[in-house]
């Protein structure tokens, strides 16, 4: 069995590599920074993300992307959504003509409003059936510690989705296949925006009723956009929809929720960014999702207000008033 390359040594790339290793795969992690790759090789842990989590012996690391990718049957992409296109331009010469590309990203590209699998298809110049999206309630710190979780491997080619499912099945990870790539990706990207709103509500101590409302109406606007783009509405009731939305909103590990809490306490975007450090995809993706919704004549009121708070300096209290005083309508 050939090895798996995981491109990106951040929080999810590292935890995902551990899952693959625990499932019996040989894994090479690519890190942009040699110091991180060397740290993994020398200590068997990723000292920058999970210093207390021992990676399986089958997991190694390099800062040479060509070495990581060469001969890999599965190439996992675990970088920030907004850098993916540029990264793939560098990696394309190394990609095998039949490798399955796995997208872990939960964002929408700024400017193009493309989903991550669309970016992969364009930038890596591969047919759509080679891409599998993995998405679900998968907070990396829990998975790195072996706490149980489930996820979805979504691909239009069931053979490749099953290949990925098999490669990440462990006693603590239960993956399901699905053929709704659009639904899986939108669920993952929009839940980050809703988690920002949830975090704001949490910090402002607005109560549990409004937090439940944000989850429910957030899912409604996610599904509205998804259906307009061809997704199966049922996908949004699954792990990559409701599952991820609830998991992210509830978890103190969520960078998006934490970012929202900081905004809700009155911090600026820059202050919140400096404090959170890691990728909080919703902050940039809220712009792209708002644009995608407008292009498709889909109403996404929560996303609109999150974008105003993040990028237009709107006061969260005013954003809430706008949401609460919209024209009343049927559910
Ligand atoms: N952390 C989590 O619990 C989960 C994250 N995700 C998604 O996975 C994706 C990656 O997130 P994380 O690993 O958590 O983020 P992270 O912030 O922990 O790590 C991102 C990694 O990308 C690297 N990076 C930054 N700029 C880069 C560039 N220009 N080129 C190449 N690499 C660059 C960073 O050095 C870091 O190693 C995101 O789309 C996120 O939404 C999905 C499920 C769970
Ligand atoms: O996608 C995630 C859990 O499924 C991680 O969420 P955050 O990026 O908000 O930490």
TrEMBL record:
InterPro entries: 6-PGluconate_DH-like_C_sf, 6PGD_dom2, G3P_DH_NAD-dep, G3P_DH_NAD-dep_C, G3P_DH_NAD-dep_N, NAD(P)-bd_dom_sf
Residues in Glycerol-3-phosphate dehydrogenase NAD-dependent C-terminal domain copies: 180-320
GO biological process: carbohydrate metabolic process; glycerol-3-phosphate biosynthetic process; glycerol-3-phosphate catabolic process; glycerophospholipid metabolic process; phospholipid biosynthetic process
Location of the active site: 191 (proton acceptor)
Residue span, Glycerol-3-phosphate dehydrogenase NAD-dependent N-terminal domain: 4-155
The protein's enzyme class: oxidoreductase
Pathways involved: Membrane lipid metabolism; glycerophospholipid metabolism
Chemical reaction(s) catalysed: sn-glycerol 3-phosphate + NADP(+) = dihydroxyacetone phosphate + NADPH + H(+); sn-glycerol 3-phosphate + NAD(+) = dihydroxyacetone phosphate + NADH + H(+)
Function text: Catalyzes the reduction of the glycolytic intermediate dihydroxyacetone phosphate (DHAP) to sn-glycerol 3-phosphate (G3P), the key precursor for phospholipid synthesis.
Name of the molecule in the record: Glycerol-3-phosphate dehydrogenase [NAD(P)+]
Organism, scientific name: Asanoa hainanensis
């Amino acid at each position: 069995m050939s090895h798996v390359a995981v491109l990106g040594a951040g929080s999810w790339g590292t935890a995902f590599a551990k899952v693959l290793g625990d499932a019996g795969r040989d894994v090479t992690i690519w890190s942009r920074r040699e110091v991180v790759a060397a740290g993994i090789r020398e200590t068997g842990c990723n000292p920058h993300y999970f210093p207390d989590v021992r990676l399986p012996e089958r997991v190694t690391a390099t800062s040479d992307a060509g070495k990581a990718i060469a001969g890999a049957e599965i190439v996992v992409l675990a970088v920030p959504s907004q850098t993916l296109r540029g990264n793939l331009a560098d990696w394309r010469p190394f990609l095998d003509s039949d490798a399955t590309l796995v997208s872990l990203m939960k964002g929408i590209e700024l400017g193009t409003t493309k989903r991550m699998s669309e970016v992969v298809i364009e930038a890596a110049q591969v047919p759509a059936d080679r891409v599998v999206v993995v998405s679900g309630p998968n907070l990396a710190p829990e998975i790195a510690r072996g706490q149980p979780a489930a996820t979805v491997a979504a691909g239009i080619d069931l053979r490749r989705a099953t290949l990925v499912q098999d490669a990440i099945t462990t006693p603590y990870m239960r993956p399901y296949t699905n053929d709704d790539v659009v639904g899986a990706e939108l669920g993952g990207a929009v839940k980050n925006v809703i988690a920002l709103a949830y975090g704001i509500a949490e910090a402002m101590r607005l109560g549990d009723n409004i937090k439940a409302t944000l989850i429910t109406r957030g899912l409604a606007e996610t599904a509205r956009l998804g259906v307009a783009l061809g997704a199966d509405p049922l996908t949004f009731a699954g792990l990559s929809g409701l599952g991820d939305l609830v998991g992210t909103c509830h978890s103190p590990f969520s960078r998006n929720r934490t970012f929202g809490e900081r905004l809700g306490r009155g911090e600026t975007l820059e202050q919140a960014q400096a404090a959170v450090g890691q990728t909080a995809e919703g902050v940039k993706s809220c712009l792209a999702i708002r644009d995608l919704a407008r292009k498709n004549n889909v109403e996404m009121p929560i996303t609109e207000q999150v974008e105003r708070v993040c990028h237009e300096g709107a006061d969260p209290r005013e954003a809430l008033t706008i949401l609460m005083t919209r024209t009343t309508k049927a559910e």
